[in-house]
Amino acid sequence: MDMTASYGPDDALNQARQAAADLLQNRNPTYSLPQPFYNDARFFALDMQEVFEKEWLFAGMTCEIPAKGNFMTLEIGDNPVVIVRGAEGVIHAFHNVCRHRGSRLCTKEKGKVAKLVCPYHQWTYELDGRLLFAGSDMGTNFDLNEFGLKPINVRNAGGFIFINLSEEAPAIDDFLVTLEHYLEPYDMDNVKVATQTSIVEQANWKLVIENNRECYHCNGAHPELLNSLIEFDDTEDPRATDKYKDLVTRKQADWNNEQVPWQLKRFGKRNRLTRTPLLDNVVSMTMDGKPGCNKLMGRLTSPDMGSLRILHLPNSWNHFMGDHAVVFRVLPLGPQLTMVTTKWLVHKDAVEGVDYDPERLRHVWDATNDQDRQLAEENQRGINSRAYQPGPYSETYEFGVIDFVNWYGERMLTHLGHDTPALH
Ligand code: 3BY
Ligand code: FES
Ligand code: FE
Q1: Angle formed by the axes of helices 205-212 and 399-415, to 10°?
Q2: Which contacts qualify for 3-10: CB closer than 8 Å, 24 or more apart?
Q3: Residue 302 in 3-state DSSP?
Q4: Which of 118, 142, 186, 408 could disulfide-link 138, Cβ–Cβ 3.0 to 4.6 Å?
């Protein structure tokens, strides 16, 4: 008897692979994606296998695990991950899965330990993943060396930690070199998380990213954010006014004096970095535009640094100002469920209640995140309708969305073993 027939889910996933490849090869690259990419459980499984388990992901900040033994955990779909600071400051990432019977090893989101001890039967691992101790009854042939934690690729630059769950991680060095350079003025070894939040949105992760990649919706949705943000960030943008170009010229002279990089850099469609001015006479993303933290970051002497914007597809966008930074991480939880984690960073020596008030620091992005959550959720509800069909993106207002969906399509097709169609 052919036993493979009983493995229905594999057949379904293979069918989804073929369907996804066909749809991606035949889609209009300036239109939103066909419905199953946003709501189908098997397409979601593909996203996890082919994108989140194969691409580099933003996991967290090095300042969250400042000392030996500090760890943080996160979940990439069904895969628990632990990131730990070992000897000599080295950062390790492991599958957070005990090699005895597979229990999740670290259960807290963050903490500090001398060794990694499994809560189930106390198998004990060194911070570099070696198994040190496995009880007394594993038999004489038991070799500790065969049961170390499974490592995950991990890289860090400019205070950002990236992980990659595949054996063949794509190249990322050129981006990391630039990231390190752009973050040098912020002295990322001397920052801390002042406050953080995680919200869960009832929307596919791609709708969360798509929403973030355009400010077409800002005017209608984000009164708090528009106290500081300009809706475009490039003098080449078709919307850029002469007034904006003048502002950029003035600010770039200031930034040159402060020796902070501002040039727009791209690494394929995956990464984009640029420093852009905030509204004139505004220095930070606060309600009144004044600094949210009185102690500036790193070696900066002026709070007026605009916003250094850093994009990392598939799961992060960031704003670095003179006084504080806001970093964002997106993790898919289900076909129509996504977690967005926001962390506000300040100088390590800034004192809460003296230099900054967490509530004031968070006000703009708490409001903005909630507004974006509603937009993504309404987008999802409409897309679930039988009336939904892909619609056209504006090439002026939504080129960032076009870039994202085309990055997604290209990476998906590559991982599915298909050539990518030539995109215009
Ligand atoms: O609570 C935790 O997450 C700790 C205990 C076991 C291992 N882990 C680092
Ligand atoms: Fe970890 Fe048993 S499952 S010690
Ligand atoms: Fe928004």
Answers
A1: 140
A2: none
A3: coil
A4: 142
pLDDT in tens, 307-327: 999 999 999 999 999 999 999
Q: Looking at the DSSP assignment, which residues form a beta bridge with residue 352? A: 356
In whole numbers, what is the pLDDT of the chain averaged over residues? 96
For the CA of 134, the nearest atom of ligand 2:
4
Q: Is the complex ipTM higher than 0.85?
A: no
Residue nearest to atom 8 of ligand 1 (CA): 106
Pocket of ligand 1 (CB under 6 A): 71, 105-108, 111, 113, 116-117, 119
Same-domain pairing of 167 and 191: no
Q: From the CA of 373, how far away is ligand 3's center (Å)? A: 9
Q: Is residue 240 part of a domain?
A: yes
Whether 126 and 237 map to the same domain: the answer is no
> Which contiguous run of DSSP H or E holds residue 407?
helix 399-415
Among residues 201, 204, 231, 219, the alpha carbon closest in space to that of 32 is found at 204
Residues with beta carbon < 5 A to ion ligand 3?
372
Q: Which ligand 1 atom minimizes the distance to the CA of 71? A: 9
Instruction: Specify the 3-state DSSP secondary structure of 369.
Output: helix
Of the bound ligands, which one is closest to the alpha carbon of residue 127? 1
Residues 128 and 242 in one domain: no
Model confidence, pTM: 0.95
Q: Is 400 a member of any domain?
A: no
Instruction: Ligand 2: list residues with CB < 6 Å.
Output: 98, 100-101, 103, 118, 120-121, 123
Q: Can you tell me which atom of ligand 2 is nearest the CA of 135? A: 4
| Domain co-membership, 289 together with 231 | yes
Q: According to the model, what pLDDT value does residue 137 have?
A: 81
Identify the pLDDT of residue 6.
57
Whether 121 and 220 share a structural domain? no
Closest ligand by atom to 96 CA = 1
Residues in the chain where the model's pLDDT stays below 70: 1-9, 420-424
Name the packing angle between helices 8-26 and 399-415 (round to 10°): 130
Q: What is the pLDDT of residues 134-176, one digit of tens each?
A: 987 888 899 999 999 999 999 999 999 999 999 999 999 999 9
Can you tell me which atom of ligand 1 is nearest the CA of 108? 3
133: in domain: yes
Residue 11: its pLDDT value, please? 86
Task: Judge whether 91 and 154 are in contact, CB under 8 Å.
Answer: yes
Task: List the domain range (segments joined by +) for residue 355.
Answer: 187-384
Question: Residue 131: nearest ligand to its CA?
Answer: 2
Domain count of the fold of the chain: 2
| Nearest residue (CA) to ligand 2, atom 4 | 121
Residues 285 and 149 in one domain: no
